């Protein structure tokens, strides 16, 4: 798949919908960017355990319940 993107004045690009769907990208996912000459490649990285744990702690700090099913038992 080859698609054209345009860099914004803030040096940002948008990953096209077709590419996001092909990679299964969702907000918060990380990409590895490699440069070889004038070729840039991106690949989806596995979930970062630190980010996952930070998300769990956010639920605790925000008063969220990590295991609501335990209360139902």
Uncertain spans, ≥5 residues at pLDDT below 50? none
Give the class from helix and strand content and strand pairing.
alpha+beta
Strand sequence of the main sheet, in spatial order? 1-2
Counting DSSP H or I runs of 4 or more residues, the number of helices is: 3
Overall tally of structural domains: 1
Which percent range describes the beta-strand content?
A: 15-25%
Shape: elongated
Measured on Cα atoms, how large is the radius of gyration? 18 Å
What's the average pLDDT? Answer: 80
Helix fraction?
A: 25-40%
| Order of helix and strand elements from N to C terminus | HEEHH
End-to-end gap = 50 Å
Largest sheet: 2 strands, antiparallel
Number of strands: 2
Description:
The protein has 73 residues and is an alpha+beta fold. It has one domain. Helices cover 34% and strands 16% of the residues. The chain has 3 helices and 2 strands; from the N terminus they run αββαα. The protein has helices at 17-23, 49-61, 68-72, and strands at 31-36, 39-44. It has a two-stranded antiparallel sheet. The relative contact order is 0.10.
Characteristic key phrases:
single chain; about 35% helix; about 15% strand; elongated
